[in-house]
Amino acid sequence: MREIYLDNSATTKPSEASLQKMREALCICYGNPGSVHRIGIDAHRLLEEARRHVAASLGVRRQTDGQVLFCSCGTEANNQAIWGTVHAKNRPEKNGSRGKILITEGEHPSVENTAARLELDGFTVVRVPTRNGALDLEYLEQEADGSVILASMMLVNNETGALYPIRTAVDIVRQNSPGAVVHCDAVQAYMRIPVTPAALGVDLLSVSAHKIYAPKGAGALYISPEMLRGKRIIPLLMGGGQEGGLRSGTENVPAIAAFGAAALEGMQEAETRAQVLHRLRTVLLEKLHSLVQINAPKNGVDAIVNITLPDIKSEVMLRALSAAGICVSAGSACSARTKKISPTLLAFGLTQREADCSLRISLSHQNTEEEISQFADVLDNEIHRLVRLR
Ligand code: PLP
Questions:
Q1: Is the domain covering 4-12+270-389 a CATH 3.40.50.2300 domain?
Q2: Do 341 and 347 touch, CB atoms closer than 8 A?
Q3: Whole-structure pTM over 0.90, yes or no?
Q4: Which one of 5, 149, 334, 367 has the lowest number of neighbouring Cβ atoms within 10 Å?
């Protein structure tokens, strides 16, 4: 049975170009990029080639535009951004308060749980509401004040596909909290829509390789020149001083080289991929609108469609679809095994029951209209079968 893979926000199938680059790094340029012999120098060359491609894909063309720091994944990039900034500030405690961190409601756990941990350490964390997938800018404006040390706001929500007006949000933060550092988790936006730290006006921006058709094992954090110059970020990992001293540990050259190749390919194919995705979404929505409730934000990306089934638990439907060779998910992949009701969907405005009956379908340019039709037919049959069994 050929699987129909509609879980591309969880991870993507690595492209041939990225795998080929990975093979080159594994089999030919297998040296340590820190070594000064030929094989080491070759590995270093691959590393820097990848850095140029990832940087270019983020509109970072000169060294003076900032640095792309390689790490292991989007989760690490987010942790590095938040911990590294908050601990570099050394802001003196005021009345026992260590400063305010602004995030959005329904951040990925790598941001939400890091913020929650910092809350236990005495920082104030404010979660800006995201009802119906709209970032509450009035609330943000009320909360943005001189005590804000960091704002970390995702660009695209991984469960609902909501696209937040980050540039406007950044302007609000900068106006009201001039000392604050601004970070954006762009993991779900990267390579699906144009993403540049300059256009967003952020100091830090996270991306992940396995969401853009490269294998797992690499991520990147963009760091602005001001952050570097002002030493406003400190490393999470200390050791041999790789990555300009900001991320020690021998770089995962095969995964990073593949990441660079995928970034290059993504830039070259951006327009055609966007057209395919838009078409696939249109077909999907046409087929689903009479069948299920579509939890579409006012402004969302084409790649993610969140639906609520007619009183059928997502877990039950996931199993039925999986048996038919269809891969989708209920919310984010990392919470799939915890069976916790998604806080993101509750923040969106769904009831507990609705959230418990929701599925995320996430598309790729690798999908076809035929796959979308097959998926919709199977979903239709399964809904009717499961309703009859009630
Ligand atoms: N941020 C968002 C919005 C995500 O969707 C994910 C992964 O699903 C991550 C961060 C974490 O990325 P990684 O899986 O590379 O750790």
A1: no
A2: no
A3: yes
A4: 334
